[in-house]
Amino acid sequence: MKILFRALALPLSFHFLSLAHAIPSPEAAHGGSSQATNTTDDAMTITPRQSSCLSTGTQSTINALFSSGGANTIVSLCPGVTIPITAPIVFTAPGQELSTQGYPTDSTRATILIQPGSTVTSAIRGNWQNNVKVLNIQVDGNRPNAGYLGGDALLEMGGGTEGQTVSHTVVKNTRSWSCVHFIGSGQEDNPCRQATVTFNEVGPCGHEGTDPATGNGLWADGLSIECMDTTVTDNIITGATDGGIVIFGSPGSHILRNTITSSSSSGLQFGGINMVDPTWSGNYSGVVVSSNTITGGPGSFINLGIGMGSQVWSNPHPETNFGQVTVTNNVFTGNVGFSIVMNGWLGGLTVTGNSVSGVTTPSSSFASASGCGAVQQAAFADSEQLVYYPAGVTGSSGPNVIQSQFTALSTNASNWLCLTNPAPPLPDTESFLPNTLSVDASTSRVVSLRDFHVQVQGDGNVVGIDTTGGVWTVKWASSRFSSACGQDGSQCLLAFGIDGNFVMYDGNGPLWASGTDGSGQLLTFSREAPWVTVTGSNGQTLWTIGNM
Ligand SMILES: *[C@@H]1O[C@H](CO)[C@@H](O)[C@H](O)[C@H]1NC(C)=O
Ligand SMILES: *[C@@H]1O[C@H](CO)[C@@H](O)[C@H](O)[C@H]1NC(C)=O
Ligand SMILES: *[C@@H]1O[C@H](CO)[C@@H](O)[C@H](O)[C@H]1NC(C)=O
């Protein structure tokens, strides 16, 4: 389609930069004549070699330009400007474009910034308009300041359209479930099709965990794509927390050379590239996923690098995903729990040349499988990266070609999205200020250290136990017993008092004490001798358990 450069009909109140930075007209840029302007639309005015850019305004300014300009209007933002918005920018006619003047690819790209206090989650809405373009800008959902909010994605594109483009754009800090969403149309004869999503920098998107107030997941996708025959290439997606790229069916789409990395500031990322949802009735025919790099970054991890099939995500569904699909030459590195898992696919997978040699081993060094089913736990314990269930990956529309490193499961295991952060390592010591420790024998546990446990017992004894390897070895004991602990042990109380005295009480009163009242400042338990100490204001040792 011919790109027409459209003059902006501007109210005088809009402030524009001088024309010194005029960009060539697309005709000139494409080698055509700059005066060969042939329009059948009276409202359409071509202004070759003249351009102005928007240097200030809000969504209202931009929306007025799109509404009055009609089809093919380009709203060109000045480099470096920030446009604060409290409602979406909406494309209102085919071929409209929002871009930064001169199409820079660095930090001078203009920024669309959602304002705190607003209830908007979508900064830009391009649904149901053919060939609209978001080029060379930055879209910031401002989640750290505006807050998490359920709602539509930060960029909402797609619908019954063709030829939409999002390129060279930064999309980050979505308040909602996705940074970029191309929605399907729900119409078989007018599907979302032939979109282009290239060279974008996406993320962070979402957070690990759930909202304590609502229970809603805080995580978000990087790119959520439901359009067929779509090109998703050369994007850099860093710090997505749900799926880096979620392919919702989207037959015929090519997902190539994307770089997907989890980030410690966002936490756990569930998936790198997902082919798990039953959208398009599970039709993934002709999808190609090649030469992508999926990395679990330091201090974070990706649970599932590429998930394929109806049975691998946390919500297994009875419809089987299907179609001849090619997944080749993808590279997995760093903290990735499972690189590729396939179960619940019908017809013709080619999965070859994928590299897992750079994945961190053992997997247990960055994640825990304790919440997984037995099959997943066993695969995880063996740091298996390429896993499939042969009976769940059957050919009907073609043969399966699967690289030989895959481990074939003998059991139909669903839900591979079960990994969690490992429990933080226990400390070597734990200290208490006066008046901060009070434990009775009905509670029993005083401290848990690395391979070490201190407990107060119903017989009045206080004991330090080495638990290395699950074998309990008593390292020290107070050995002052009492028969006045009460039936449930609650009368025997170990406390570091407000006066700095470390005291064991039973039903009759103090059983023993450190005698550091007035001078004890800190009580410290350690997994090594001298095990228990009370220290004074200069850190000097006043008492140890060995003084008893
Ligand atoms: C302008 O458009 C008309 C109608 O499509 C066409 O006949 C004519 O050749 C065009 N002229 C130029 C200069 O492109
Ligand atoms: C899957 O999608 C492809 C591409 O649109 C189409 O040709 C094919 O008929 C679809 N298959 C089914 C079973 O719907
Ligand atoms: C695997 O289990 C799921 C869930 O029970 C089921 O829907 C699916 O058909 C099973 N796959 C095979 C190959 O039996």
UniProtKB/TrEMBL annotation:
Keywords, sorted A to Z: Signal
SMART domains cross-referenced by the UniProt entry: PbH1
Domain Bulb-type lectin: 430-548
Pfam (any one): Beta_helix
Domain of life: Eukaryota
Position of the signal peptide: 1-22
Entries under PROSITE patterns matching the protein: BULB_LECTIN
Presence of keyword Chaperone: no
Database matches in Gene3D superfamilies: Bulb-type lectin domain (2.90.10.10), Single-stranded right-handed beta-helix, Pectin lyase-like (2.160.20.10)
SUPFAM superfamilies, per the entry: alpha-D-mannose-specific plant lectins, Pectin lyase-like
Protein name, entry field: Bulb-type lectin domain-containing protein
Protein species of origin: Neurospora crassa (strain ATCC 24698 / 74-OR23-1A / CBS 708.71 / DSM 1257 / FGSC 987)
Lineage: Eukaryota, Fungi, Dikarya, Ascomycota, Pezizomycotina
